[in-house]
Amino acid sequence: MEIINVIVAAIAAWAIGSVWYMKLAEPWMEAAGVPRGPDGQPEGGMNPKIFAASFVLQIVVAGMMRHMFELSAIEGVGKGLIAGAGVGLFFISPWICINNLYAMRPFRLTLIDGGYATLATAVMGLVLTLF
C-alpha cells in the first residue's frame, strides 16, 4: 500500500508544479535564460520526455521521503507537512541556490525553483502522512 501513497504524493507534487510554473512561466523563462521563438514560447517546444522524466523523479523523491518518514517515525499530517517543507526549504532549495550561484544565474530563479521545491515537498509530506 505504501507504493500507492508514494505515487499519489508524486502526482500531487507534479500537479502543484504544473500550476506553479504556468503562473510563473514568464519570469522563470527570463531568469533561466530559456531561448524563445518569435511566438514567445521555448524554441523547439517542450519534449514530452521531460514531463515523463520529471514525474519519475518525483516518485524517487516521494519514495525517499516516505523512507525518511518511516525511519524518523513522522506521523500525522501536521508533522508530514512540516517535515516535507523542511526537506524542500533546507535540503533542496539550498542545493538549487548553490548550483545557480556557480552558474551565475539570477537569484530570482532560485526563488522560483526553490519555492516550488519547498511547496512540492510539503505537499508530498502531507500526502504521505494522510494514510
The sequence of SSEs as H and E is HHHHH
Task: Give helix % range.
Answer: over 70%
Q: Could you describe the largest sheet, including whether it forms a barrel?
A: none
Write down the overall mean pLDDT.
Answer: 95
The beta-strand count equals 0
Number of domains: 1
- Straight-line distance between termini: 9 Å
Radius of gyration: 16 Å
Q: What low-confidence regions span 5 or more consecutive residues with pLDDT below 50?
A: none
Q: Per the principal axes of the C-alpha atoms, what is the gross shape?
A: globular
Beta-strand percentage range: under 5%
Structural category:
mainly alpha
DSSP helical segment count: 5
